[in-house]
Specification:
The complex is a heterotrimer of chains A (about 325), B (about 350) and C (about 260).
Chain A: H1 7-12, E1 15-17, E2 23-28, H2 38-49, E3 56-57, E4 63-69, H3 73-79, H4 81-87, E5 111-112, H5 126-137, E6 146-149, E7 163-168, E8 171-173, H6 183-191, E9 196-199, E10 202-205, H7 215-219, E11 225-227, E12 232-237, E13 250-256, H8 258-275, H9 285-292, H10 294-301, E14 312-313
Parallel strand pairs in A: 5-6, 6-7
Antiparallel strand pairs in A: 1-2, 2-4, 3-4, 7-12, 8-11, 9-10, 12-13, 13-14
Helix pairs in contact in A: 5-8
Chain B: E1 2-6, H1 7-17, E2 21-29, E3 40-45, H2 63-66, E4 70-76, E5 81-83, E6 90-95, H3 97-112, H4 119-125, E7 128-133, H5 144-147, E8 157-162, E9 165-170, H6 173-177, H7 210-213, H8 216-224, H9 230-234, E10 241-247, E11 255-261, H10 282-301, H11 311-315, H12 322-335
Helix pairs in contact in B: 8-10
Chain C: E1 9-18, E2 23-29, E3 39-44, E4 48-58, E5 61-67, H1 71-76, E6 84-91, H2 97-100, E7 104-110, H3 114-126, E8 133-140, H4 149-158, E9 160-165, E10 175-176, H5 180-183, E11 194-199, H6 202-215, E12 222-225, E13 241-242, E14 245-246, H7 247-250, E15 253-255, H8 256-259
Parallel strand pairs in C: 7-8, 7-11, 8-9, 9-10, 11-12
Antiparallel strand pairs in C: 1-2, 1-6, 2-5, 3-4, 3-6, 4-5, 12-15, 13-14
The chains are: A alpha+beta (about 325), B alpha/beta (about 350), C alpha/beta (about 260).
Organism (chain C): Alkaliphilus hydrothermalis
Protein name (chain C): Anaerobic sulfite reductase subunit B
Pfam families (chain C): DHODB_Fe-S_bind, NAD_binding_1
Chain lengths: ~325, ~350, ~260
């Protein structure tokens, strides 16, 4: 029987229409970029039994298993149930039928750097936060990319995402514990933003220059600098690659907490729902913000959100980036 | 005399004692560690036995109780200066045998070295009574047995923490009086660490010659040490300080003279006005510290400075192990290949 | 607190004498009776404290020669007669002056190293009969760096003095070259009756000592003075410790036999 496929349904099910006729590729989400190694055995099995034996690691920290015949989709969906269970349902994601594969593919895998499970620099557990976000937004068809990074080094490239989350430490200083060795001051000047200076043998922190990287805490030999146990984040928005206008994400909120970020992201889906151009096969969130303007986005994103006392919100954002033609955003009506 | 007190009775005792004493013990400062979501265990004031974290080795030593990291010596006004004051309570410190032995090293430097006593140290030190926390099991990096600091009977009270109760051996008469009404006598003699995983043999002083000072061993440390000074700061016996004069920002006519901890690994330790300094490379700083801890202090005062608590090894971000350094020195001297 | 050794006392400045552009001698009122070569901790409250060697002393005064090299000395530089300095000390062990009496004394001083030995030279200048023979070797970087010029001129009347500068322009008529160059010119008749005092920068003391050793002067006849960054000057702060020796307590003056064992 000739192949007769609903490609839209297949794509929504996290399978790709590939260049090789008759063959698809399964895309596996790994929220937070970490998984128990045992799942690799199952992926190996599927790749070898149904695919071409290859397992591609995606830029968003998922796996892609190419060379799979379209006919095998239902069978594979049943097979990957343990992965849906372990990497989605167990995080609290609501999936009606875990034997039918992924129910959506628009919102991409929430990726994360290794975070403070391992890295000395990271200011929080990026994986855990990523899984919380996954629970809040998945499944969803809208095209949104989210990544979390532990510190402003931004190893995950949060600056290339629709939502980039950077961990911030609120450094707290106990002057009496400081010996004036200047380790923090020298390091901040050399490697960070020069937010610290010596005044009268003790350290002064310029809050406006401090980006909350937490390096002063790392450098301090006497624990004069410690982290506020409360966690804070910087939320970057609307970075993108793509053909039309690549650009870095820009700060939207600083010194914001985890719950607020989740609310803002959830609100954004309502904003998309309101403003997306439904004449297009899909529209990327960043271009919607281009059309409505930042202020409208901001209004929707912050709906019902109570911002903490430390939070700073961007009044205005000049996203910049570059365009190939001066009329890239011009249309003949 | 030995007693067993249930935790709530022990807490009553602490409450009673706190009228007269400030109570210091190692406690856990949650999420205040160097890395995010890690804790810091260091000395602080406590009210209840549950606050005492005896399950791990404190990251910092108790020296900061008698020798604060920052200590104001004088306050200056335009025409006068006034000595800083201290609280009028006595001090009770919960600490392990190695740290009690370390305290004697601080006493030696501050009270016996040179013709004058350090009165700022003395005024806190003379308030202190030790509550020895029994320490039977060696922690990682400990080598107290090799340094002879695993044992002490210099304490006012010794305690063993058990599930829900505390065993006490009380020697101090004043403290003893708190136990009189307590018909909770129990045999308790504290035990001590008998053996550490890490054992070092400290080389004989007469074997150490200037050739050792020039040995390539130190050049290796020059490449590894980053001069952060953490080893100095966590050390129970590092006692160096630097004096600072400051004028207050809001009133430059007033100010203070204070001292802060200093460390031989940290830059500027030997800088002199005019630009000259000594031991610029980190290897010679490692050599300087090592010799102080296991050689020259002993030559001057008759016991080794290092008490083998191993905190320097616990903290070093570059995984430089001091006990391994002692072993290397000993090996070099044994092989005799330092006299080239 | 009783017996607080860190308390400084006020000392009124009597006289300020510029030696060079950056070296100034301060004569202050003081009842201290230091040994030659001892030092005091000098401070200006709110600015800082530093060890400074006593360059001379007498009835009711001591004198210090201070080079402007940091925040404290910059501040001291602005003081005038009638202003106060704050002192504590004197500290350390000085030169064994008694041991030098009746001997052939040689003093080699480089730069500011002349300050801690000036009181010895002046002592024997006042009491020339107490020394068998006296040679003074003085080296400075340039003619502009020469300290105590009037006193140097006086000393030349009574002793063999050699003044040299490392380098100078053509109009300099005196000696040029490092001090070490002039060690060979000194006549030493009896190696057992000589005492050599060498004070200056570490490198100068090292090489000048070697020159005298080459001449056959026994190690135990050579004396040097160390400069270190004392913070407390009473054996606590650790800054001046070398091996088991505290420069503030056992020094700053050392016999060469001890000094040669001190590795920083």
């Amino acid at each position: 029987m000739a192949l007769d496929l609903n490609t839209k349904a297949i794509k929504k099910n996290a399978y790709r229409i590939t260049k090789e006729r008759g063959k698809t590729a399964l895309r596996v989400r790994v929220p937070g970029g970490a998984l128990e190694a045992k799942y690799l055995t199952l992926l190996q099995e599927i790749a070898e039994e149904y695919g071409n034996g290859q397992l591609h690691i995606t830029t968003r920290q998922g796996f892609e298993l190419p060379g799979i015949p379209f006919e095998k989709i239902d069978e594979i969906n049943k097979k990957i149930k343990p992965i849906i269970q372990g990497l989605e349902l167990d995080y609290g994601v609501d999936i009606e039928n875990p034997e039918a594969g992924y129910p959506a593919a628009g919102t991409r895998n929430v990726s994360a750097c290794i975070g403070n499970k391992v890295c000395q620099f990271a200011n929080y557990n990026t994986t855990e936060f990523a899984r919380r976000i996954e629970k809040a937004i998945f499944p969803n068809d809208y095209h949104v990319k989210i990544a979390l990074t532990g510190c402003p080094n931004d190893c995950i490239k949060a600056h290339m995402q629709d939502f980039g989350i950077i961990g911030m430490s609120d450094p707290q200083y106990e002057a009496d514990r400081c010996i004036g060795c200047e380790a923090c001051v020298k390091n901040c000047k050399r490697r960070v933003t020069g937010a610290l200076s010596m005044v009268n043998g003790k350290v002064k922190r310029d809050e406006r220059r401090c980006i909350g990287c937490g390096e002063c805490v790392l450098k301090c030999p006497t624990a004069a600098w410690t982290r506020n146990p409360e966690k804070f984040y910087k939320l970057l928005i609307m970075g993108r690659t793509g053909k039309k206008n690549p650009r870095l994400a820009m700060p939207f909120l600083e010194w914001v907490d985890e719950d607020t970020i989740i609310k803002v992201i959830v609100n954004t889906y309502e904003y998309i729902d309101q403003f997306i151009d439904r004449t297009l096969p899909k529209e990327h969130i960043g271009y919607i913000v281009d059309r409505t303007g930042y202020q409208v986005f901001k209004e929707y994103a912050l709906k019902g959100v109570e911002l903490g006392p430390k939070v700073k919100v961007s009044e205005y954002i000049n996203f910049g980036g570059y365009k190939y033609e001066k009329d890239a955003f011009m249309d003949q009506l | 005399m030995g007693y067993r007190l249930q935790n709530n009775d022990f807490n009553e005792l602490l409450k009673e004692l706190s009228k007269e004493y400030k109570l210091y013990a190692p406690k856990r400062f949650e999420k205040r560690g160097r890395f995010s979501d890690t804790d810091s265990v260091r000395y602080g004031e406590i009210q209840r036995v549950e606050e005492i974290d005896y399950t791990v080795k404190s990251h910092f030593s108790p020296k900061e109780i008698v020798y604060p990291i920052t200590q104001t010596l004088f306050y200056f006004t335009e025409e006068e200066y006034r000595e800083s004051q201290v609280h009028d309570k006595k001090i009770l410190v919960f600490l392990r045998p190695c740290d009690i032995n370390g305290m004697r090293r601080l006493d030696t430097i501050f009270l016996e070295n040179g013709p004058y006593k350090d009165v700022y140290f003395e005024r806190l030190r003379e308030k202190v009574k030790f509550v020895m926390m029994e320490c039977k099991e060696s922690f990682e990096n400990c080598f107290c047995v090799s340094m002879g600091s695993n044992f002490t009977d210099h304490y006012s009270m010794a305690v063993r923490f058990e599930e829900g109760s505390v065993l006490c051996d009380v020697k101090d008469k004043d403290l003893q009086s708190q136990f009189v009404d307590n018909k909770k006598e129990s045999n308790f003699t504290p035990e001590y660490v008998q053996e550490n995983n890490i054992k070092v043999e400290v080389p004989d002083a007469e074997k150490i010659t200037p050739a050792l000072f020039e040995h390539d061993l130190w050049k290796d440390y020059a490449k590894r040490c980053i001069g952060c000074g953490r080893c100095n700061m966590v050390c129970m016996t590092c006692s160096c300080f630097t004096t600072q004069d400051i004028a207050y920002e809001d009133n430059p006519k007033a100010g203070e003279r204070r001292r802060v901890w200093a460390g031989c690994h940290v830059d500027k330790f030997t800088d002199m006005a005019g630009g000259h300094s000594f031991r610029k490379d980190y290897g010679s700083r490692m050599r300087f510290k090592t010799m102080h801890k296991i050689y020259d202090y002993n030559k001057r005062f008759g016991e080794h400075m290092c008490v083998g608590c191993g905190r320097c090894d616990d903290i070093c971000p570059e995984y430089i192990s001091f006990s391994t350094c002692i072993k290397k020195v000993n090996q070099i001297l044994k092989e005799g290949n330092h006299e080239e | 607190m009783k017996n607080n050794p860190l308390i400084p006392h006020k000392a009124k400045i009597i006289e300020v004498t510029a030696q060079t552009d950056i070296d100034i001698t301060y004569k202050v009122e003081s009842d201290l009776q230091p040994e030659n070569g001892q030092f005091v901790q000098v401070s200006i409250p709110r600015v800082g404290e530093a060890p400074i060697s006593i360059s001379d002393f007498g009835g009711g005064y001591i004198e210090m020669t201070i080079r402007k090299v940091g925040s404290l000395t910059n501040e001291i530089y602005t003081l005038k007669p009638g202003d106060d300095l704050f002192l504590r000390g004197p500290y350390g062990k000085g030169f064994p002056l008694e041991q030098y009496k009746g001997k052939h004394l040689i003093i080699a001083a480089g730069g500011t190293g002349l300050a801690p030995v000036k009181s010895i030279i002046n002592y024997f200048y006042r009491n020339p009969e107490e020394v068998a023979r006296f040679d003074v070797l003085m080296g400075f970087k340039s003619p502009e760096d020469i300290l105590f010029q009037p006193e140097i001129d006086q000393w030349a009347e009574k002793f063999n003095t050699t003044l040299t500068v490392d380098s100078a322009t053509e109009d300099w008529k005196g000696n040029t070259g490092l001090i070490t160059k002039f060690v060979a010119d000194i006549t030493i008749e009896d190696m057992d009756n000589v005492e050599v005092v060498i004070v200056g920068p570490p490198i100068m003391m090292k090489f000048t000592s070697l020159e005298f050793l080459k001449r056959g002067v026994p190690k135990e006849k050579i004396w040097v003075s160390f400069e270190r960054k004392m913070s407390c000057a009473i054996g606590k702060c650790g800054h001046c410790k070398i091996d088991e020796t505290y420069v503030c307590l056992e020094g700053p003056v050392f016999n060469y036999t001890k000094a040669e064992t001190l590795i920083d």
